[in-house]
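Chapter summary example.
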Amino acid sequence: MFVWHVESHAQILFATGSDAEVTEGGLRRVDSSQVSNAWVSEDLNLSNYKQIWLMPTRVEFREVAERASSARSRESALAFFVPEARRNRFEELFGEEFHESLSEVESFAETEGAGRDVLIVRGFLTDVASGMPPESRTSGVTIVNWIWEVNYFLEISDSMDNTLLARIGSRERVEGPFESSETNPVTSQSIRAWTSTLARGLGQLADISRE
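The structure predicted for these 211 residues follows.
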């Protein structure tokens, strides 16, 4: 069971100077001393929300043409086409880990319906690119310099009117080098790290609102 802790703050502190940022939807960037990589509505107050309704996760892969793998391409920064079976497993893992991580945020109970004290939580992976070449029939060990590059984030909305209240997330590349036999366990570890980071951020926002 995860327990999130934050320093005592009376209110949300917004980033200033070169770190200040406002999204097209009007969300302002939170100072990283409170929550890293978070953007929230200016009047955010989560103190009246007691439950979260987790939506199905969404994964969007970068469009990459199928091509043959070579030693040169494996050593480059080029992304490879992701086969359907690998895509399906990746999506499944993200869905499972997102639900597990978010269900462990102690500030909220889980529910499956709208209500005045319910937040809708959506998890996303976008522009997902893979540095893993297609399966090779040649013998020997395949070395890849990076496995995945993704935007990972969650959005929370009011369940009654769907108003977007906050977004938490970042972009990350899983750097190697790795042997091909390591890609599956490293993929699982990476997805778990992303979803845990998102859950921690949500817990931190909730704690700030309730102080």
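To summarize the output: Residues 183-209 form the longest helix (27 residues).
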